[in-house]
Amino acid sequence: MTSDGSSPSTFCCDRRLISKSYWLCARFFECEVLNLVANLQARLQRPLICGTKMDFNSPATLRFYSSVTAVSSLFYHENLYFLREIQSHRVGWVTVQDTVAMQVKLLNLPDSVKKSLTEVIQPVGDQIRKWLCKHESVIQKRITLYGQFSWTSHAMIDYKKTAENLLNSGELEPSSAFILACINSIEDYVSLLWPKVKNVRKDIIRCLRQNKKLDTNYPPEVTLWVAKVSKNLASKYLSANGHTGEKDIDSVGFLNAVLSGNTASARYFITKLDPQSKPQEIRQSVVNIMRCGRRFNPSTLLFLFSQMDNNQIDQILRGNAENALVCFLEWPLQKFFLILANKLWNCMSQDVFHSVLLAIVQQITQYQPIPNYTSFENPDVYRKFYFECIFKEFWLSSPEQYRLLCIEELITPIISYLFNPHRYVCAMRNLFKDESSYVKLEKLFFTNADAVLLFIQ
After folding, report:
1. 29 phi and psi, to 5 degrees?
2. Closest Cα partner for 413 from 1, 3, 20, 13?
3. What is the model's pLDDT at position 89?
């Protein structure tokens, strides 16, 4: 079943798929499918190498990290207020992304360096877009972003250090600075700014005393911190949020941080957990994150992994194979996807295999070429290309019986669907009456991941 509850065949048989697949089927015996696959294989190399170990603590390569920091500096030159206005709109953000891509294209650099830069435009831009979305209530005027962002060893934004940079810049008004400190759980700044934000405190304290749940105009982290710092309001906060004594405010702060993908706050509140219950809370938090599907922050998951040993991580991954593999399609976890898949074949059912295949296809179809660009100039094409490579490796490394069942249950019904509604019923019957024709069809899809991908995307 797909994420929306539809069956794989229903998911695949939309009009666009039918049109494309029909074109391929009609020319099957003329070998045009084989030619197309050959051309695609010539264009798409297989650069992904499966290792045997997932080292979540290993830093990014110097070349990759340099590419990330260089590209991020190009985003900072954009008007921040403009970025804030459009950050939640995919089409508007693609326009910003394209502007950065054009800047990279015009740089006087070797093609290999330009390629490395272009590969990270989309993920870096997405990181910045999410940061702007998270801090929308803070950025109410034009401020300087250039030089303020810090990046982790995984080439993701370090929210706490970035917040500290902005707080030290002196560009923020006290209320905005206080909100920023609360969002990122920077306790020293919360205490320092506390006397300067009487209006913020007054609004939130009034709501808490009236037992209103999150009925403020402030981010939830601000409400939590006001309750935490104010005397005798922690119990009011817990009651308003449905916690009746089983957890203290720090445990709730950790839980909220994990579920909302606030890694900076998770780092702070994890130090406040009871040592005896801490390991169990971490393990349960990892499981909860994986169940969120694609609505999670990979940075938070990586942080929680850093608090566990390899055996604990393996146990959780094996017990949540489908959720884990879908999570590992997100950047920057993608580099571990094929390693993880090879570890989980014994834990993966046929249904899970189908679901993960379709999850990869969804990622591929998400990144469509932009008409104004050709070849690999559009950063989204790089993302599409990368997921196509993942699909091919995943298909070709899968157990033979999984591929055979997938051909019988997923691809053959699509072909039948293409012919049955039209006047080609007889042609379809003739196709499968000849056993050698079916064997040829099966062979084509069994060994050519490109042909499978062309049918089911």
Report:
1. -75, -5
2. 13
3. 52
Q: Which residues pair with residue 151 across a beta bridge?
A: 157
Residue-wise burial string across 237-251, b where 16 or more C-beta atoms lie within 10 A, e elsewhere: bbebbebeeebbbbb
Question: Residue 206 in contact with residue 235, Cβ under 8 Å?
Answer: no
* Total residue length of the chain: 457
Question: Encoding tokens for residue 283?
Answer: 């393990």
199 contacts: CB under 8 Å, gap ≥ 6: 175
Residue 27 confidence (pLDDT): 37
Tokens matching residue 225: 């911190």
C-alpha distances in angstroms, 426 versus 313, 378, 421, 423, 429? 54, 44, 11, 8, 5
The whole-angstrom separation of Cα 377 and Cα 400 is 37
The answer to whether the beta carbons of residues 147 and 64 sit under 8 Å apart is no
Residue 430 burial by CB count (10 A; 0-12/13-18/19+): exposed, middle or buried? Answer: exposed
* 369 preceded by a cis bond (ω within 30 of 0): no
Residue 190 pLDDT level (bands cut at 50, 70, 90)? very high
Distances (CA, A) of 260 to 85, 98, 345, 405: 22, 29, 31, 38
